[in-house]
Amino acid sequence: MVVILSGRPLGTVAGRQVPMSVLAARGVSAETATVTISRQRIQHIKDKHSEAAALTNEDIDRLPEIVARPAAVLYDLEPKSTQGDVLLYVFDPAGSSRGKVVIELDFSSKVGTQRKNITSNAVRTAGYVEPRNLRDPRYALLDGGVEDE
Fold first, then answer.
1. Handedness of CA 14, 132, 95, 50 (dihedral sign)
2. Distance between CA 77 and CA 147 in Å, rounded?
3. Dihedrals φ, ψ of 132, to 5°?
4. Which residues pair with 116 in a beta bridge?
5. Gap between the Cα atoms of 84 and 104, Å rounded
6. Are 125 and 46 contacting, i.e. CB atoms less than 8 angstroms apart?
7. Would you state the pLDDT for residue 18?
8. Interior CA angle at 140 toward 88 and 67, to 5°?
9. Would you tell me which of 38, 50, 89, 146 could form a disulfide with 101, CB atoms 3.0–4.6 Å apart?
10. Which of 149, 115, 78 is nearest to 102 (CA)?
11. CA distance linking residue 86 with residue 142, whole number of Å
12. Tell me: the pLDDT tens digits for 108-141?
């Protein structure tokens, strides 16, 4: 089962859309604006190895809101073991950490009993991180901010 989180344009930050020219300048485009997550990915997010990094049920329930209104959007210049481009949607959970939702653009997966192939922008993982980790040079800030609170 795949849950659609958002049909809004990718890169919408605090109610404003990241100019597609910013993504296009990096050679990034998305076939669709749809963001999805599978049950297996939700379970993966809940089962993170470090309890400190695992999202709370409350933040998992807020994923559609987080994707619709992130505090920042980062582009991963060195994605690990992925098929395509990766964006990180940053959000502010309660506490001193920051949250991130990792979305792989144009991710191809098979769904349903007939194993129909779909392409969407798929949530691959999510968790809590120290704000300094989001300032790593491997991430290019597209919009918003990742400063310490």
1. positive
2. 19
3. -60, -30
4. 111
5. 6
6. no
7. 54
8. 25
9. 89
10. 78
11. 12
12. 877 666 667 878 888 888 999 988 999 999 998 8
